[in-house]
Amino acid sequence: MTKNPQSPSQSSASQDTSGSSHPLDFALARNKAWVYQTRTSDPDLFSRIGSGQSPEILWIGCADSRIPETTVLGLKPGDVFVHRNIANIVNATDLSALSVIHYAVVHLKVKHVIVCGHTSCGGVAGALGNARLGILDSWLQPLRQVRAQHVAELEALAPAERALRLSELGVRHSLEVLRQNADVIDAVGERGLQLHGLIFNVGTGELSVLDEEEGETEKEIRGKAFALK
Question: What are the boundaries of the region Disordered (predicted)?
Answer without folding.
Answer: 1-22
